[in-house]
Amino acid sequence: MPFRALHERDFLGRQEELAILSKKALRADTGTAQSAVLVGARGLGKTELFKQLFGFLFWKQDRVAPFYYFVNSALLSASTFSKTYLIQFLCQRLAFEKKEQSLFSCEGMSLAALSMLVEDRNAGWAKEIIDQYEQNSVDPINALRIALAAPHRSALSSGTPVAVLIDEFHRLQNLSVQGTPDPQLVSLFEEPLSFTKAPHIITGNAVEILEMPVASILERIPISPLEFKDAASKILAPLRVNDFRGNAPPLLLRHLGGNPFYLGCIGKTVATKINPEDKDFWNAYLMEILGGGLALLWSSTLKGFFPELGTRKTALAISHKIYHSSEPLSCNRIAASFTLSDDQAETILHKLYLSGIIRGEFGVFRSVEDSVLRDIVDCFYMREILAKPSHDLEQETMARLLPERPGTISFDLTLPMAKEAELVAAQCLDQIGKNLHLSQDVTGQLQIAVIEACINAMEHSRGTEKKIYVSVTADEKRLEVSIESSGQEFIVQETGEPFSDREAAKSTGRGWGIKLMKRFADDLRFEKTPRGIKTVLIKQLDKVVRAKKEDTTKNA
Amino acid sequence: MHNFSLSAKSEHGVAVMLPKGYINDMGAVRLEQASEQLLGKGVKKLIVNFADVQFINTIGLSIFTGIVQKTQDHESLLCFTNLKKIHLDVFEMVGLIKHVKIFKDEEDALTFLKGRG
After folding, report:
1. pLDDT one-digit tens code per residue, A103-158
2. Which of A163, A170, A366, B82 makes a 20 to 30 Å CA pair with A517?
3. Are residues A168 and A235 in the same domain?
4. What is the pTM (predicted TM-score) of this model?
5. Chain A interface mutation, best of B57, B90, B94, highest count of A Cβ atoms under 10 Å
């Protein structure tokens, strides 16, 4: 294939859509096929569906030749586009004859070289197309017309229909002649899209495609989110290598809304843990929306539509307002709220609509039903507009996502990286221990462990944020203290030990910190966080109670 | 910040050091300096009374190993008294217990040291 597709076992919950599309493409054989557009939000797996469809058509049948083209935004001058389109089509079409995968690598060859290959193969139909293209290549519009008609012409000449799959079709609005984009050029697709022997299935940003003039002749095929069961399998797929047998938190799965891209990103991030718990899944989500693939998807979308920083910030603030409004907002209301002219507000709102960040209908705008996008808008807003530090951002997001269970108490403390600041954390624990009626021994053990964790955080932090964040959460069963600092990761994943602790141990007798933490906590974990690294100390309080009872029994 | 102080006294040829507060690097260095001075003066019996020690961290502990080593080099006796359970656990974990004598309080330690000539 001209691209990498997922293994069949990882292509989850899309068999029905694949069957529908295959059937549609194969109708080209009887000359009854109709061109269509896949409609669905970002990340729903339209591109992957295309790849799977191509794989099916290429390998598993002989009636209809597939042609996949990914619109590259760097190749949008009419002459360059027409040439690459034609060369790729001919290479894939010739490859289909004898299922020669090696021909995919010839897609970068020159037209002259391709012409020789075509002669070598006695593909007269292809030679005719190349000759016609070369004769018209001085006129970029004519050349484009010939390239776009090539699949249909080949179908008529060779007798083998073609299913044309075009990904990122919306980018074709920027087709240009001599450096000037001409949105009308895309209308040259109108004729090819009506060929029943060479149906086109296109995808890309659905909102933009549906605004293009060619959309009126396309059948719409909606792509839905994955079902819950498939979503669960999708998020766990990267964890299979570790033989993980647990489940992802159902609340998180519902939150991700069956979006394969979202699920895949979280799955990959959480797969860095050997046996992830619910909390690890949520942490992975937090990392993703604060600075991972999920954040990148939407920040690049926003940048693409609003390259200028000032306008981008205004667009972000408007999005935030729309997401937090209990009712749809009109353009006039937005203009008044942000002191913009109606034209300015309309331009921004229209771009936000095209980007898929907001919905627009009947002259009003509302949020998209996408919880992840909502979180990302909130995070971007807090960071870019309110300039909140990442710790607050993290805390507020988590608090919103995971409301505290009844009976849980939590304390947050921010320490400067100053000499003996660790004592402040230790003293706080003393009072928390008293409040929870913990024995002096248990509190003392935790105090020592926390002191060591704070010292570790100070020693290993290489971040610019000279702070340590201590969080204490307790319920009836357990007490958890997390100590987080900025800076690079200092943990060896395989062993869970800090990189430099062993070295320190050799030279000075240090390196006891981790041992002490392990000894005095029931569980010790190191987690990579968006800020840096977090040391988590857990004390099982029900175990403590049992220990007390055992002591009483023994004494009696 | 000053979360550490050190006082010392001498009774019947036995030097008693009373650290107070948080034994970190600075606290332990002061203890080390004080013990070096005492050992330098020929004191052969040392007691460290931990009654007022609140916390010990591992940097302090590493310096403590030096104190123990120097005491052994001077063929002197080092006793720890009034240790809280948590501190005893810490010393035990790092293996310091083997090289010092542990007593419930100063009185017990003094009785032991008097008996050692």
Report:
1. 877 777 888 899 999 998 889 999 999 999 999 989 999 999 999 999 999 999 99
2. B82
3. no
4. 0.66
5. B57
